[in-house]
Amino acid sequence: MQGTETPTSPAAVYTPTDRTVPTRSPNRASYDKELVHAILDEAYVCHLGFVRDGAPVVLPTLYGRVGETLYVHGSTGSRPLRMTGQADPGLAVCLTVTHVDALILARSAFHHSINYRSVVVHGTAYDVTDPEEKRVALDALVDHVVAGRSRDSRPANKKELAATAVIRLDLNEVSAKLRTGGVNDEPEDLALPHWAGVVPLRKGYGTPVGDPGLAPGTELPGYLGAL
Amino acid sequence: MQGTETPTSPAAVYTPTDRTVPTRSPNRASYDKELVHAILDEAYVCHLGFVRDGAPVVLPTLYGRVGETLYVHGSTGSRPLRMTGQADPGLAVCLTVTHVDALILARSAFHHSINYRSVVVHGTAYDVTDPEEKRVALDALVDHVVAGRSRDSRPANKKELAATAVIRLDLNEVSAKLRTGGVNDEPEDLALPHWAGVVPLRKGYGTPVGDPGLAPGTELPGYLGAL
């Protein structure tokens, strides 16, 4: 759930580019690094887009963050990871993370919406070949699922490391986009008899279910009780 | 949350293609139409991928389903919607929807995972120009947020219809992918002292908050009380 925090000044922002300034609702865009990190750290999967045979492909995948770098891993046989390895110049990707926070029901069909927080990262993904960086990245991927978990599991062995490809994507061309607040109906619609308002969406955790074969005396770790 | 149901026989499936047979874990793939519909109908946003200037773009967006067709809408000024309008042959897209159902904590870092259900749709998106299809699509988009809602809101007027672009994507080249179940640790790791198991993720609704300016006597509709 938590990326490794790097010290960023409160005003640290990504520099907007043609690709990260939205054509619509630019007032909903943000380049604030802390906000971007928070959105990235809260989600479990990203949607990774790349181009194959001229057509777009969008796949959900786990990821981890170490400062200003995102890591995605997968089998060395999986498509995007094979593609980065083959191409020296890297693979052009777009990595997107979205939270849906509330449903917005307006009196008019037109103004129905959702409150959301999203991050879109444009860039080039590169194969991680340095063994130390690969270990750091894999720890970040496990710690992204549950903070601190990499220290409470068996690290990858040589065979597993060899079977796992990791790609890195630096956070340079990045934007967040958010909708918050309530209903934006037209003034002439306010007297209509339709209910309008905000329906919040909630996320939470169920009770952890231990694997049947746990070693005797293995207790539920504190970092899970806190979820 | 509900798309318009079309009668499909229990065995109705999408025909697998090169793009919809995964290179990894093909046993997790499904082409069952009912399963695909259920995954699509449960989510609020999809991630829509397209190619712009040779690079992938992945944007979160609302969608609706009518039988075997998905509809995405947006301002006529937004990028993917402008692109379909400009190109007669349509726009190559990949539309992906993902639910994260549980965290899988294994004794080994390598076997950490999540339980998920995803749908990936490959195809060509076309501008919807027929006014009647556009109205049906916009109703489906509103009803996707809350079933039945389109009948309890003011329909789009001419100005709003003109400002809204709708694209259609037929469900032909489609696959679902799922991970379910528990931990898959290596036999030699079972005695390790690390807790392993499944942490379910829960989704739910908070209390609806009415817009401050509701017309007098406007009650919370029954379809929201049932959420």
UniProtKB/TrEMBL annotation, chains A, B:
<dbReference type="InterPro" id="IPR012349">
    <property type="entry name" value="Split_barrel_FMN-bd"/>
</dbReference>
<feature type="region of interest" description="Disordered">
    <location>
        <begin position="1"/>
        <end position="27"/>
    </location>
</feature>
<dbReference type="InterPro" id="IPR024747">
    <property type="entry name" value="Pyridox_Oxase-rel"/>
</dbReference>
<feature type="compositionally biased region" description="Polar residues">
    <location>
        <begin position="17"/>
        <end position="27"/>
    </location>
</feature>
<dbReference type="Pfam" id="PF12900">
    <property type="entry name" value="Pyridox_ox_2"/>
</dbReference>
<protein>
    <recommendedName>
        <fullName>Flavin-nucleotide-binding protein</fullName>
    </recommendedName>
</protein>
